[in-house]
Amino acid sequence: MEVVINNSNNLLLEDYPAHRWYRFVLSFPPHLVRQYLDCFNIRPNQVVLDPFCGTGTTLVECKKAGINSIGIEALPIAHFASSVKTDWSPDPEMLFHHSHKVSEIAFEKLSECGGDSLPLFDSNNGHLRRLPESKTKLLIKNSISELPLHKVMILIESINSLNDRTFLRHEQLALAKSLIRSIGNLKFGPEVGVGKIKEDVDVIDLWLSEVCTIVDDLKVLKNGKCGDSEVRYADSRELENILKPESIDAVITSPPYPNEKDYTRTTRLESVLLGFIEELSDLKRVKKSLLRSNTRNVYVNDRDDKYIEGIEDIQLVADMIERKRKELNKTSGFEKQYSRLTKLYFGGMYRHLASLRKALKPGALLAYVVGDQASYFRVMIRTGEIIAKIAQQLGYQLIDIDLFRTRFSTVTKTQLREEVVILKWQ
C-alpha cells in the first residue's frame, strides 16, 4: 500500500476550523488523516474509530468529510476537548453575545474586588482568590501566577453563573486553550516546564479572543459536511463491551509512544482549574486507566506485561534496558522502572488490539501512527515493528509500515522514525 505522506506536522490554513480550538503539542496532523481516509477509500456510510482519540484530530477530519466516527479517550480533558471540537451546534452569533455577557459579569466581579491591576492588590490581604491547598499541590509549581489565577477563578465563576449548557462547554474549552497559550507560565518543547513568569495578564480579553476564534470557525463549519461523531470515556485496552460487534470499517489513530511523556502532567493546569481533576485520588484513577507509556503511571499491581511474555523482541529490548541501567549505575526509582514499563506498554497494546478484534468488520483497515524511541538509556525501541509483530500474532495482516516523518532526538542526537503501521483484519 503506497501513500505519499506530507512530512509537516503543522496545521495548514484550511485545517484551522475546530482543530485550533485546543491541541496537544506534536499532535499528528489533519492531512495525515485525510490521506488514509482516501487511501482506505472510506465513504460516508462507514464508521471510523480512533481508540486513542486525544484532542480529536481523526474525529474532526471525519466529521468534515461527512464520515461517521467514534473516539475512545481516558484522559478527561482530552475527552472533553474532542467532544467539544466535534460539537458544531451552537449558533455562532449567540455564542459571541453570550460570551460578552459573561465578560461583563466577570469585569463587575473584578471591580468589586478592587479592579484588575496588580498594584490594587495585596497578596496578603485576602482579596485574591486562591485554590484549596489540595488542588495547589496538583499543579506544577509556578504554572500560573497569583493575579492571573484570581482572574481565572472569577471568570470560571462567571461562566458557570449563567449556567447555559448551549455555550458552557465551548467557553470552557476556550479558557483551557487560553490557560496554556497565554495566561499561564508554562512552556512546551515538547516537554512541559515553566517559562517566563507573567505576573499579570488580561485574562478576560484573552479568553474572549479564543471564544471569537471558535465563533469564526463555527460560521465556516456549519456550511460544510457533517458526519456523526461520538466520544466515549473509556480505557482503550478494554473495548470488548464498549463497541458493537463488526461495527468498525477502519481505524486511524496515534497511541502514546513508550517514553516519558506524561499527558496528565502536560494538561494539569487546565484539568485542575476546570475541575476535571479535583484531588490526588482523581489523578491516580485517571493514570490507571491509561496505556502505560511513562514511569509516572506504573503501579505495583500492573499486569499487562504478562500478555507479551512469549514475544522475544520485547523481552530483548527490556533486558537491554536493564543491563544498560546496571552498567551506568542508575538507581533512581524511575530508572528502575524503564525495563518494566517497556513490557507494560507493549502488553497494553496487545490488550488493545486483542479487545478490538470483535468490533472490526472483515476486511477493516487500520493505521497506527507510532514512533521509534530511545528515551531509556539510548536503547532503541522500534515501536512500529514490534506493534506489527503483536498484531500478526493476534490475527491481523500486516500490509505495510509507511514512514511518516523523522524527528530529531535530543537524547541520542539522531533522527528517529515516525511510522504508520497499516494492518488489515482478515
Task: Provide a compact summary of the structure.
The chain is of the alpha/beta class and 426 residues long. It has helices at 16-19, 30-39, 57-64, 76-85, 92-112, 133-136, 146-162, 165-183, 203-221, 263-266, 268-273, 280-288, 312-328, 333-356, 383-393; strands at residues 47-50, 68-73, 186-188, 192-194, 229-233, 248-253, 360-371, 396-408, 415-425. α5 (92-112) runs antiparallel to α9 and α7 runs antiparallel to α8.
Please write the string of helix (H) and strand (E) elements.
HHEHEHHHHHEEHEEHHHHHEHEE
**Main sheet summary:** 7 strands, mixed
- Separation of termini? 16 Å
Mean pLDDT: 92
What is the total tally of β strands? 9
- Using the alpha-carbon principal axes, give the shape: globular
Q: Numbering strands along the chain, what is their spatial order in the largest sheet?
A: 5-2-1-6-7-9-8
Structural class: alpha/beta
- From the alpha carbons, calculate the radius of gyration and give it in angstroms: 22 Å
Strand content: 5-15%
Q: Counting H and I runs of at least 4 residues, what is the number of helices?
A: 15
Low-pLDDT segments, ≥5 res:
118-125
Helix-residue proportion: 40-55%
